[in-house]
Amino acid sequence: MASDENPFTNLQEQIDDAASYLPSTVNDDVLTRLKHPERVLETNLTVDMDDGSLETFTAYRSQFNGDRGPYKGGVRYHPDVSRDEVKALSGWMAYKCAVVDVPYGGAKGGIVVDPGEYSAAELERLTRSFAEEIRPLVGEDRDIPAPDVNTGQREMNWIKSTYETLERTTAPGVVTGKSIENGGSEGRVEATGRSVMLAARELFGYLDTPVDDATVAVQGYGNAGSVAAELIADLGATVVAVSDSSGGIRDADGLDPRAVKEFKNDTGTVSDYAGSENITNEDLLTLDVDLLVPAALENAVDGDLAADVQADAIVEAANGPLTPDADDVFQARDVPVIPDILANAGGVTVSYFEWVQNRQRFYWSEERVNDELETVIVDAFDDLVEAVETLDLPSFRVAAYVVAIQRVVDAYTGNGNWP
Ligand code: NAD
Q1: Helix or strand or coil: residue 322?
Q2: Is the CB of 219 under 6 A from ligand 1?
Q3: Segment 55-105, tens digit of pLDDT
Q4: Three-state SS annotation for 183-224
Q5: What Cα–Cα distance (Å) separates residue 402 from each residue in 139, 244, 302, 405?
Q6: What is the Å distance from ligand 1's center to 170 Cα?
Q7: Confidence at 3, pLDDT banded by 50, 70, 90
């Protein structure tokens, strides 16, 4: 059962946990700063509906920390978006950029909306209204939005076009995750799933366990989950179960992740896929597999459910899928967890490559993007292993926050506390 814990307090708990392991003590006020966003915009957008009526939507943009570079983070369209969720996601972005050493701060945005209930024209008007509202906050060197749950290239193209039109300029780097024709990067769509695969591959190497013998379950079959499933299967592992919001499917002999994606594209769900058995999401999360990849939303596994999880290792594709209580359970049982802020950092890393290409007006091949991404993720994984071993840290999550917090603190200290 997914937990309704507050993701923002979970983020703060993760920072407190890690801060106690930092090699040098952090001043209490600096620690407070590390646990709160610098600013949060809350706004209400009144939009014309197709039938001539008006409807008002609440929207947010949280800028968490800008010490290491421009704020950076996705925009989520979901009925459960809240101020605290956006604040938490913006903090995870700040630490994610630091852990992979990409020169950005952290931000996140969201609109409280179920996009499935609106036409493309209504969503375009909503997105352009949001773009206009956040215009004073964003810019190629200020804050750079990107896709998140239920947003993609289409929405990023609309934000870019609104910004450029109103600013009377061309600034493709104002958002990332655009379509290729509009300044997007090769490899961006697959980047998050690719880093999940790389994190899983590195973890199995570290554990000295052959990844091609592994069985894998993936919760959530959108952009992050489906690509992760495909690329992990390409390593030779057997994907035995996947799920989406309407339920899961299982085939002990292995699913073909690309065929399942085609089936989901045609039918809207993975359920009833030929040759598989329908299971619940809870069944999926508690299957006896070598690797569990939660790739849906935050709080998928809380402390109670963690006690029933049988996976031998977890790689987090979603942001915040394990609550701190769940983390405690896995730590006590020595189940390694590669945290979201490393495992899904491929998205922001290739967003960074997209932004670099936009600034230079010089575009890279997909091969170059994938090679550079692999270097970033493998180096970041090695930094975590080194932190775990040299500082005797209890988990990869603590290691990720120790590395990331130290980088943010160093930048803050170097900048000086002004004004
Ligand atoms: P998406 O909208 O493409 O896919 C989300 C998937 O999760 C869908 O298949 C949906 O049906 C499923 N889902 C929702 N609720 C579920 C539930 N209770 N149980 C099982 N499945 C459920 O979104 P996405 O872009 O793949 O994002 C998924 C996660 O990955 C989010 O936490 C997001 O913040 C994170 N993430 C995404 C990116 C990216 O580049 N797309 C980058 C970093 C992190």
Answers
A1: strand
A2: yes
A3: 999 999 999 999 999 999 999 999 999 999 999 999 999 999 999 999 999
A4: CCCCCHHHHHHHHHHHHHHHHHHHHCCCHHHCEEEEECCCHH
A5: 30, 33, 23, 5
A6: 31
A7: low
